From TrEMBL:
<feature type="region of interest" description="Disordered">
    <location>
        <begin position="426"/>
        <end position="446"/>
    </location>
</feature>
<dbReference type="GO" id="GO:0042450">
    <property type="term" value="P:L-arginine biosynthetic process via ornithine"/>
</dbReference>
<keyword id="KW-0028">Amino-acid biosynthesis</keyword>
<dbReference type="InterPro" id="IPR006204">
    <property type="entry name" value="GHMP_kinase_N_dom"/>
</dbReference>
<keyword id="KW-0055">Arginine biosynthesis</keyword>
<dbReference type="GO" id="GO:0005524">
    <property type="term" value="F:ATP binding"/>
</dbReference>
<comment type="pathway">
    <text>Amino-acid biosynthesis; L-arginine biosynthesis; L-arginine from L-ornithine and carbamoyl phosphate: step 3/3.</text>
</comment>
<keyword id="KW-0808">Transferase</keyword>
<protein>
    <recommendedName>
        <fullName>argininosuccinate lyase</fullName>
        <ecNumber>4.3.2.1</ecNumber>
    </recommendedName>
</protein>
<keyword id="KW-0456">Lyase</keyword>
<dbReference type="InterPro" id="IPR000362">
    <property type="entry name" value="Fumarate_lyase_fam"/>
</dbReference>
<dbReference type="GO" id="GO:0004056">
    <property type="term" value="F:argininosuccinate lyase activity"/>
</dbReference>
<dbReference type="InterPro" id="IPR022761">
    <property type="entry name" value="Fumarate_lyase_N"/>
</dbReference>
<dbReference type="Pfam" id="PF00288">
    <property type="entry name" value="GHMP_kinases_N"/>
</dbReference>
<feature type="domain" description="GHMP kinase N-terminal">
    <location>
        <begin position="44"/>
        <end position="114"/>
    </location>
</feature>
<feature type="compositionally biased region" description="Polar residues">
    <location>
        <begin position="426"/>
        <end position="438"/>
    </location>
</feature>
<dbReference type="InterPro" id="IPR024083">
    <property type="entry name" value="Fumarase/histidase_N"/>
</dbReference>
Amino acid sequence: MRLHESIETALVILPDKRWHSRAHGKVTPHTGIEVATTPHKPKVVAAVTSVMDIFGVKDARVELSFTGFIPVSRGLGSSTTDMISALRCVGHALDLRIGAAEIARICHEVEGATDPTMFSTPEKLLFASRKSTTLRRFSGVLPDFVVATFDASETMGAVETEEVVFDDAAHHVQRFENAVRKYEKALKTRNTDAPFPAFTRAQPAMPSTFGAYLANVGVSVALIGRQVAAMERYFDSRPLGACAGYGTSIPIDPEITAHLLGYTQGPLGSIAAVADRSAASLVLGQLAELSTLYSRVAADLQFWSSGAVGLVYFPDNLVGQSSIMPQKRNAFVLENIKARCASIIAAHMESLVSMKSAPYTNTIEVSSEAISGFSAAVEGYRGIATLVDWHLDGAVPQVDIARQVMRDGVAFREAYNSVRTKMQMPSASRSVGESSQAVEPAEFGAGPSAVQTRRICNRLGEYREKLSSTLEKVRGRVDKSAANLRKEVEELLR
C-alpha cells in the first residue's frame, strides 16, 4: 500500500492459515555461541545470534529445525516468519522475555525490512516495513485499498512488491472483498457486544456492554432529533408583507408573494412576523441540547481512554503526543469537542438574553442580534457531530481490562442481597411468617441485546440523516428567499 508518491511503501498483512513456520529447538552447553539450523537458514542464524548477544548469553549451542511451509521469494514474509518462530523458540528455551517490538527490530536489522507478523494482530497495522515502524492502527472499518495478487507456483520469479501487481481472476478478488466485508462486520459486532462496565458517579457499578452505552446515547440523540425535525414547519411561512409590523394600506396579497418565493403561506400575523424569533431560538435550543449531550459523551470517552483507566483505546489519528512526555497519548480532540459545544450553548443563551425585556415589536435586539449566531451554530454543530462520530467509530473497548474491572467489583444487586441476607431482613415478596434465608443474586443482563443495539443504532442513523436534511432545508430556504427577494427588488427598481 503506497500512501503517496513521496512516502515509502507500507504493508497491511492478512494472515493465511495455510502457510506457517514452526521452529523446534535444542539448547546445550557449549564454549561460545553456535547456532545450527536444518535446513540452513543464514538469516535465522544471524537473528538468533543477535538476540543471544543482546541478552548476554555466553556459552550455548542452539540447534533448530523447522516444519511448515511458506513459498519463498514471493513477498510472503517467509524469512521473517522463520526468524520469528526461531526467536520465540530460543526465548522459551532460555527463559528470555523477547517482546514483539524487539523481534521487529532484530528482523529489520538482519534483512533491512520486515513484515509485522510478530505482532498479535498484524492485519490491523499499517506497517512501514523498511523502517520497522507502525504508521497507523486500524480500530474498526478498513480504509480504501487496492487488492494485489500473486502466483505462488514454482514457475514464477521473485515478486517486487513495490512495482509489480499481477492480475488475477475476478472471482478471486471478489472472494477477498467478501472476506474484508465480513472482517469489518465482525469488528463492528465485536465492539458492540464487547463487555464493558456501566458507571455511576465515575465508579464501575454493573456489568454491561459498550453497545448498550452507544444505543442509549442514540436514544437521546433521536429524541432531540425528532424535535429539531419538527421545527421545519415554523420556517415555511413568509413574513414579507408585514412591513414594519402593522401591514400596509396598499392592497397586496402576501400569499401570492409567499408562493412566488417558494413558501407555503404568508405571515400568520404582521406583528409576530417581525417581533417573533421563536423558531430560530427553538432550533438553537435543540442544538444546545445535542451539544450538551455530545460534551457528556466526550467527557466519558476522555475518562475511559485515560492512562489511569484504559478501558477505551483510540487509534493514532485521533490522539496527539506530548513533545516533552512522549509516553502520553492525548485525546485532545475530545477537549476540542467540549469547548465547541460551549459556543453553541452560548448562541442559544445569547438569543434568549437579547430578546429578554425587548418590546414585542420591530426592534434590533430581536430582528438582528437575537439570531446573529444561528448560522455559525448550525455549522458548528455539524463539525461537532462529525468529530463525535469519528471517536465513536474509532473507539476500541479494551475487553481484557473491562472484564478485570467487572471481576474486581461487586454488582449492586449482589451487594444488596449479601447485605440484606447478613442483616436477616425479609424480602418484601415473602409473607410475615416465612423464614428468612439467603437469596441468590438475581441474573441481570447487560443492557439491550446485540440485535436491539444494532436496531437502535440504525434508527439513530436515520434520525441523524433527517436532522441533517432539516438543517439543509432551513438554510436552503433562507438562502433561496434572500436571492428571490433581491431579484424582486432589482426588478422593481428598474
